[in-house]
Amino acid sequence: MAENMIVFDSLSYANKLEEVGFTREQAEVQATILTDYMDSTLVSKKDMINSTNDLKRDIEGVRAELKRDIEELRTELKRDIAETHVKIEACRTELKRDIAETHVKIEALRMEMNLKIDQLGDRMTIKLGSIMVVGIAAMVAIQKLL
Known about the structure:
Blueprint (H helix, E strand, L loop, with lengths): L9 H10 L4 H18 L3 H101 L1
Helix pairs in contact: 1-2
Protein backbone atom coordinates (compact mmCIF):
# COMPACT_ATOMS: atom_id res chain seq x y z
CA MET A 1 0.00 0.00 0.00
CA ALA A 2 1.10 3.58 -0.57
CA GLU A 3 2.41 5.62 2.36
CA ASN A 4 -0.49 8.09 2.30
CA MET A 5 -3.19 5.41 2.53
CA ILE A 6 -4.97 4.18 5.59
CA VAL A 7 -4.04 0.60 6.44
CA PHE A 8 -7.19 -1.50 6.19
CA ASP A 9 -7.24 -5.26 6.02
CA SER A 10 -10.03 -5.71 3.49
CA LEU A 11 -9.49 -9.51 3.27
CA SER A 12 -9.98 -9.91 7.01
CA TYR A 13 -13.04 -7.67 6.82
CA ALA A 14 -14.52 -9.74 3.95
CA ASN A 15 -13.83 -12.99 5.81
CA LYS A 16 -15.64 -11.69 8.89
CA LEU A 17 -18.62 -10.70 6.77
CA GLU A 18 -18.70 -14.22 5.33
CA GLU A 19 -18.62 -15.67 8.82
CA VAL A 20 -21.86 -13.82 9.67
CA GLY A 21 -23.70 -14.92 6.56
CA PHE A 22 -22.67 -12.66 3.67
CA THR A 23 -21.77 -14.32 0.38
CA ARG A 24 -18.16 -14.02 -0.82
CA GLU A 25 -19.25 -11.59 -3.52
CA GLN A 26 -21.23 -9.44 -1.01
CA ALA A 27 -18.31 -9.43 1.42
CA GLU A 28 -15.81 -8.41 -1.30
CA VAL A 29 -18.11 -5.61 -2.55
CA GLN A 30 -18.54 -4.38 1.04
CA ALA A 31 -14.77 -4.45 1.59
CA THR A 32 -14.14 -2.63 -1.72
CA ILE A 33 -16.75 0.03 -0.98
CA LEU A 34 -15.37 0.58 2.52
CA THR A 35 -11.77 0.74 1.23
CA ASP A 36 -12.70 3.24 -1.51
CA TYR A 37 -14.64 5.34 1.00
CA MET A 38 -11.77 5.37 3.49
CA ASP A 39 -9.23 6.22 0.78
CA SER A 40 -11.33 9.14 -0.47
CA THR A 41 -12.47 10.63 2.83
CA LEU A 42 -10.15 9.71 5.68
CA VAL A 43 -6.89 11.51 6.29
CA SER A 44 -3.80 9.50 7.02
CA LYS A 45 -1.28 10.33 9.70
CA LYS A 46 1.22 11.22 6.95
CA ASP A 47 -1.36 13.59 5.41
CA MET A 48 -1.78 15.24 8.81
CA ILE A 49 1.98 15.56 9.27
CA ASN A 50 2.36 17.01 5.76
CA SER A 51 -0.48 19.47 6.36
CA THR A 52 0.97 20.42 9.74
CA ASN A 53 4.40 20.96 8.19
CA ASP A 54 2.85 23.02 5.38
CA LEU A 55 1.03 25.15 7.94
CA LYS A 56 4.21 25.60 9.97
CA ARG A 57 6.07 26.74 6.83
CA ASP A 58 3.25 29.10 5.96
CA ILE A 59 3.22 30.52 9.49
CA GLU A 60 6.99 30.96 9.42
CA GLY A 61 6.68 32.71 6.06
CA VAL A 62 4.02 35.06 7.40
CA ARG A 63 6.07 35.63 10.55
CA ALA A 64 9.16 36.51 8.49
CA GLU A 65 7.11 38.80 6.27
CA LEU A 66 5.62 40.52 9.32
CA LYS A 67 9.08 40.99 10.79
CA ARG A 68 10.26 42.58 7.54
CA ASP A 69 7.18 44.82 7.42
CA ILE A 70 7.64 45.86 11.05
CA GLU A 71 11.31 46.62 10.44
CA GLU A 72 10.41 48.69 7.36
CA LEU A 73 7.82 50.59 9.40
CA ARG A 74 10.37 51.20 12.16
CA THR A 75 12.84 52.51 9.62
CA GLU A 76 10.21 54.78 8.06
CA LEU A 77 9.10 55.97 11.49
CA LYS A 78 12.67 56.74 12.55
CA ARG A 79 13.20 58.66 9.30
CA ASP A 80 9.93 60.57 9.76
CA ILE A 81 10.84 61.39 13.36
CA ALA A 82 14.29 62.61 12.28
CA GLU A 83 12.72 64.78 9.56
CA THR A 84 10.24 66.16 12.09
CA HIS A 85 13.08 66.99 14.49
CA VAL A 86 14.87 68.86 11.69
CA LYS A 87 11.69 70.81 10.88
CA ILE A 88 11.10 71.60 14.55
CA GLU A 89 14.70 72.77 14.95
CA ALA A 90 14.33 74.99 11.85
CA CYS A 91 11.11 76.45 13.29
CA ARG A 92 12.81 76.98 16.65
CA THR A 93 15.74 78.78 14.98
CA GLU A 94 13.37 80.94 12.92
CA LEU A 95 11.30 81.73 16.01
CA LYS A 96 14.41 82.73 17.97
CA ARG A 97 15.50 84.99 15.09
CA ASP A 98 12.03 86.55 14.90
CA ILE A 99 12.01 87.12 18.68
CA ALA A 100 15.46 88.72 18.53
CA GLU A 101 14.34 90.99 15.65
CA THR A 102 11.21 91.90 17.61
CA HIS A 103 13.31 92.76 20.68
CA VAL A 104 15.50 95.01 18.52
CA LYS A 105 12.42 96.73 17.07
CA ILE A 106 10.87 97.15 20.52
CA GLU A 107 14.13 98.60 21.87
CA ALA A 108 14.30 101.02 18.91
CA LEU A 109 10.69 102.07 19.52
CA ARG A 110 11.39 102.50 23.24
CA MET A 111 14.38 104.69 22.52
CA GLU A 112 12.38 106.70 19.97
CA MET A 113 9.54 107.14 22.50
CA ASN A 114 12.00 108.22 25.20
CA LEU A 115 13.55 110.73 22.78
CA LYS A 116 10.13 112.11 21.86
CA ILE A 117 9.13 112.29 25.54
CA ASP A 118 12.39 114.11 26.30
CA GLN A 119 11.80 116.50 23.37
CA LEU A 120 8.23 117.08 24.51
CA GLY A 121 9.48 117.70 28.03
CA ASP A 122 12.01 120.20 26.70
CA ARG A 123 9.35 122.02 24.66
CA MET A 124 6.99 122.08 27.65
CA THR A 125 9.78 123.46 29.82
CA ILE A 126 10.49 126.16 27.27
CA LYS A 127 6.80 127.03 26.93
CA LEU A 128 6.26 127.05 30.68
CA GLY A 129 9.42 129.14 31.10
CA SER A 130 8.17 131.56 28.47
CA ILE A 131 4.78 131.73 30.15
CA MET A 132 6.47 132.36 33.50
CA VAL A 133 8.67 135.11 32.01
CA VAL A 134 5.64 136.73 30.42
CA GLY A 135 3.70 136.33 33.66
CA ILE A 136 6.50 137.80 35.76
CA ALA A 137 6.93 140.61 33.28
CA ALA A 138 3.22 141.23 33.40
CA MET A 139 3.27 141.28 37.22
CA VAL A 140 6.23 143.64 37.25
CA ALA A 141 4.51 145.90 34.75
CA ILE A 142 1.30 145.83 36.76
CA GLN A 143 3.19 146.61 39.94
CA LYS A 144 4.93 149.54 38.39
CA LEU A 145 1.65 150.87 37.17
CA LEU A 146 0.06 150.61 40.52
